[in-house]
Amino acid sequence: MVITDKQIVETLKQQPEAGFRLLMARYREPVYWHIRRLVVRHDDAQDVAQETFVRVFRSLHQYRLTSSLKKHAFYNLLINNILYLCVT
């Protein structure tokens, strides 16, 4: 059974731990490999991925069900996290 982004968000709001596991299961690999194309070091890519997931979790109240989690989280926050890592 494929779980939708809407179901993930609803689970995150009702059961944060279970929702976070669903979020990680669905997006961990694609997010990591997207970062890895932009960041050379494995450790840096893992750090950016972790920070991205934390920021997604913290910004759920801003999420609109009209956009996908992928767009909301992993392409807006991801780029900001990579830029921050490169500057510091």
What does this structure look like?
With 88 residues, the protein is mostly helical. The chain has 5 helices and no strands. The mean pLDDT is 78.
Key terms:
5 helices; 0% strand; mainly alpha; globular; 88 residues; single chain; 77% helix
Would you list the SSEs in sequence order as H and E? HHHHH
The percent range for helix content is over 70%
| Low-confidence runs of at least 5 consecutive residues | none
Tally of separate helices = 5
Which band does the percent of strand residues land in? under 5%
Number of strands: 0
Specify Rg, calculated over alpha carbons: 13 Å
| First-to-last CA distance | 42 Å
Q: What would you call the structural class?
A: mainly alpha
Kindly report the average pLDDT value. Answer: 78
Principal-axes geometry comes out as globular
Largest sheet: none
Architecture blueprint of SSEs:
Elements: H1 5-14, H2 16-38, H3 42-58, H4 69-75, H5 77-87
Helix pairs in contact: 1-2, 2-3, 3-5
Q: Quick recap of the structure?
A:
The chain has 88 residues and is mostly helical. 77% of the residues lie in helices and 0% in strands.
